[in-house]
Amino acid sequence: MPIRVPKELPAIKVLEKEKIFVMDEERAMHQDIRPLEILILNLMPKKIETEVQLLRLLSNTPLQINVDFLHMSSHEAKNTSSDYLDRFYHRFKEVKHKFYDGLIITGAPIEQLPFEQVDYWEELQEIFHWSTSHVFSTFHICWGAQAGLFFHHNIDKYLLNQKLSGIYSHDVLSPTWSILKGFDDVFFAPHSRYTTIKRSDIDKIDELEVLAESAEAGLFLVGNKNNRAFYAMGHLEYDRETLQQEFERDQLKGVNPKLPKNYFPNNNSKQLPPLRWHMAASLLFSNWLNYAVYQNTPYDLSDLLEK
Length: 307
What we know:
alpha/beta; Rossmann fold; eleven-stranded mixed β-sheet; 10 helices; globular
């Protein structure tokens, strides 16, 4: 699938090395088709790394996609220069008049804070509210999923006794859902968080359904029955080394972290972790694009106001 992004976005070089077809804006202008419009709200500190991870996963269908990146105006990024954000990202006020087929809201390393204490919470609430009338389907990831459930359904998160980090086995509970089409009964996925959502709180909401969960890690995927919102508690988009990098970062901070569970061979942090979740990641995102977005979104996106 050709992904349309700004011509000089650094992620392009990484993706082209992986033989992923990335189309710059100039070439895309000559194609007379209606591409999907996808907005990515990137809340992760390492912007470029997350861009590569998500664009890689959006590349597995024959659909053309226009991708816009969004950052929070009310938060000062510490790991990404303002020049980079000005060049490749939008502020919400610059896109709030637009309509999108899909929105991806990433995680953020702030889950130990109450939502109301997050410096950009007010702006994020505005985006959540706007998405109900200007986005056809939203895919929330980790903290983004917890924040979305809190805003839309008043479901709060709970602090864990220690950080949940590792690769966990998950059971598919609702294989008839199109977003899980082609999945095996069991799949692996990374988790990296300090908080959790209780299954009992999800079960109280009629329009929500638990689609996949882990005996060890708890909930993984929750879906709105109208396909307009999905909440993934883990990080299928992570690269092979991401949990390792987080572990080493926490070591440098003096946090004294435990080894990510089921991750390093022989629990040896010097050995290369096996990649066991990439197939599930590719399938989940391509299913979301195909079944939840492409096959259901209106051709004229302004019709979302009528839905």
